[in-house]
Design brief:
By secondary structure, the protein is α/β, with parallel strands linked by helices. The chain has 13 helices and 16 strands. The strands form four sheets. A seven-stranded parallel β-sheet has the order 5-4-3-2-1-9-8. β8, α12 and β9 form a beta-alpha-beta unit. The chain starts with a helix and ends with a strand. The protein binds alpha-D-glucopyranose.
Length: 455
Amino acid sequence: MKRLIPVLLAVLMCQSSFSQKKIWNETEEEKAERLEWWQNDRFGMFIHWGSYALAGRHEWVKKRERISDNEYQKYFDNFNPDLYNPSEWAKMAKNAGMKYAVITSKHHEGFTLFDSKFTDYKVTNTPYQKDALKEWVEAFREEGLKIGFYYSLIDWHHPEYTIDRVHPHSANTQEEYDKLNKDRDMSVYREYLKNQVREILTNYGKIDILWLDYSFPGKFGKDHDDWGSVELMKIVRELQPEIIVNDRADLKDYAGGWDFTTPEQFKVPEWPTYEGKKIPWETCQTFSGSWGYYRDEYTWKDTKQLLVLLIESVSKGGNLLLNVGPTGRGTIDYRAENALNSMGEWMKYNGRSIYSCTEAPESFSVPDHSLLTYNPKTNRLYIHLLDYPLQNFTLKGYKGKVKYAQFLHDASEIKISSPRGYWVKQELSENDINLVLPVNKPPLEIVVIELFLND
Ligand code: GLC
């Protein structure tokens, strides 16, 4: 009996924590259905826009330079994006092949791009006066793009938000924090947060994605209790039952607490898992090193790097959310615009290897210098050539699996035949096939071969 007690206790604890940790009821199948459009669309635009665009040196400028509220106020007082035309942004996103977009309704600085009943620190009180979020939603919907709101859990402006380690007034010791926070009441901020999330999920029609950012548990940090995440997420699910939510509210253990994971600014080595299962995921990436407009930032990725980010995400079952940081005048930086154009040019001919595609079945080996994606509905396999081969392209273990091969961009046949070459004869093993490619690389950054597979 003595030995049984700990076992019984563990079972009981497990059961009770399981029953407590549920935010809403949904079967795995229902969840898969809810996320289906998003997993098919694969490519979205992230937009970081706030009063920090005027500083033009990162959306974290207030923290990085420890700027006081008083001093930071000039960005609010001068916020007047006279060239703001969200339908231009929406067209750029659409032409790039993006199918959805997520904009910062409020970033860490606390400034809201929407009209809110709960604060004065909002766009309608700046010289711009209009609800920029409303205009954005209308323009993006008009272009047929799905709508997402980023909302910062962190707030560097709200007077009741307690100072923590990522705050511009961050300190070193508990004593210092106690002193800084003695007149601040986080529960007031929790209410504010709930009220504002309620506003953005009520006043703008159907919202497809919510991007909450972010928890940082631990010393001088904040976790789901600080945000009241459980209650918040219940409100979210109730107001927008079809919405898709990211995983940064520190609700990983709660069923219904999150829908997808969000690797940021790096490539995942493989399809991310949670408790042994592959989970929906989206990597968010910048064109350069900053999310908000950063005039003097020069680490811009080139077109090939950006395309690889997209293709590689899909090859591991994920999405790409690629960020632009519009300027204080409301325009998209020319460098981002050029990059979007180049991606769009590629997507026009190769989108078929991205949309509705996912990781290829394990039975297909990945040829050297290439990335595979697969469309389960059409049963086609896509080989993305990161380094264009010279004539012979051998596919190991593909014998009997391929019905037809073509370039994706122009639907021109690629012959399946024995390898070419003189003096050194290349033997094919009996499980392999060889494709004979033209010597000239077609004029595309990354050439894609489309294989029609046997059933
Ligand atoms: C981080 C940063 C933030 C950015 C976000 C995008 O959480 O704090 O500035 O908005 O990543 O994923």
